[in-house]
Amino acid sequence: MSQYTIVFTALINLLGIAGIVVWHLQGRSRPNERLITQIVFFLAMTATLVCARIMPFRFDAPHLDGTGTLVVMAKILWWTHLSWATIGFVRIYIVLDGRPREARLIQDLLVAIVYLGVLLSVMAFVFGVPIGTILATSGVFAIILGLALQNTLGDVFSGIALTLGRPYTIGDWILLPDGTEGRVVASNWRSTYLLTGAKNQVVMPNSVLAKQGLTNVSKPDEAHQLVLGVRIVPTRAPAFVLRVMLDALSSCNSIIQEPPPSVSLIGIDAAAIEIQLFFSVTSLAHRSSAKNEIIDLVYRHCIANGLALASPPGTQIISDGQITVPKTSTLTLLKSIALFSDLTEEEQHAIAAGAIEKRASSGEELLAKGSVSDRLLIIREGVALRRDQDEIVARLAPGDVLGAWGVFAGQPESSQSLTLTPVTFYQIEKSVFDSLVVDRPRLIEDLAGRLHRHGSHSDTGAPPPNHSDGTRADLVHAIRSMFGAH
Question: What region, left, alpha or beta, does residue 8 occupy, with left being phi > 0 and alpha being psi -120 to 50 degrees?
Fold first, then answer.
């Protein structure tokens, strides 16, 4: 071998080693720079290899001296850099193609194929190993290994099938036939990890997921429809009951109002009118809070309109008398409001005696934005809204209070209050509360302090917050904690 060839061979080894050092120094956080480095060093090694007249795709018996060792190392380094450059292109393609995180399975599969191909090429073109014989012999071992690992291989290939079919992506909420449900937080070769609403991690083998049907609640979006059954004693016409149930749904802050919720009458007999309420929530994680609010509102609207809930089927007690349902009195309504629950019986009776019942048609303004109210309004029947710049900030139902900030704290209204449906309400002038200050000087201050601490139903001016329960806001934290990141 000529001195000229020896110099180029040594240069190939230096370029290969330098490329490895630079590649590691750049770190994993700079994939684009790594790929450029791999391509530059690979092209430089290829050009030098051509100049040295060394054919990496052909096996040449090495010389039994230092020069032969240099040639073998040069070929190994060239094949190594070829595999890294190819893998870099694969990873960049997956990123630019906008694939989800679970495409990591495809990436790992392609990387394994590249490494296997390079290993066989090095064995064949550098060391002259007969690959055909090895492949024929390894077939027997592959059969034995496949039988021993058939369950694991089933999970692996099921994971590949799920990745290619994409029935779900990382972050989707899925529901399985056995009742298991949760968000997909990770997926690997063998298993898929679900984070349930109870903050538990469920590990599902990919073969199990591939064999059963699953419901992806997050597609096309996370809005989910719920159904709640209600039975009402038939003391009023079904049309009237239907309107009351629609009012209850219209006053709910936890559900989606567009498209509007609906009510269906599904049956009637002497004991009850059977109704189903259909409403949607933004996410399955909010279904409990939405159902809680709907049940509370159904009860409040039924009491406000003189309706009674019927007993479950088969539990009715036969009675000769007519069922009577008392309507809510002013005193009963006051006692149900948290703001006045600590008042004495005498104070509650005095406030109830000063209440004046009034009615307002739909779309009528009750309190203007920026005004300091000198009267308290308590909704007895119907639905009202608090609106700010054409956006609804709260929906008010029977038992909700308006004007408390002005009467007790002297603060202006942060939003406009108007009726959504015809509303019946009680109006209590500030002078009624001022008359009670004679016997209890700190009454107004106590009510103002209670208002600041707890509000008065929806009088805080905004719907109740939706607490996180396995939502996407917790997804990043769950993934980081799962893999030990902080």
Answer: alpha
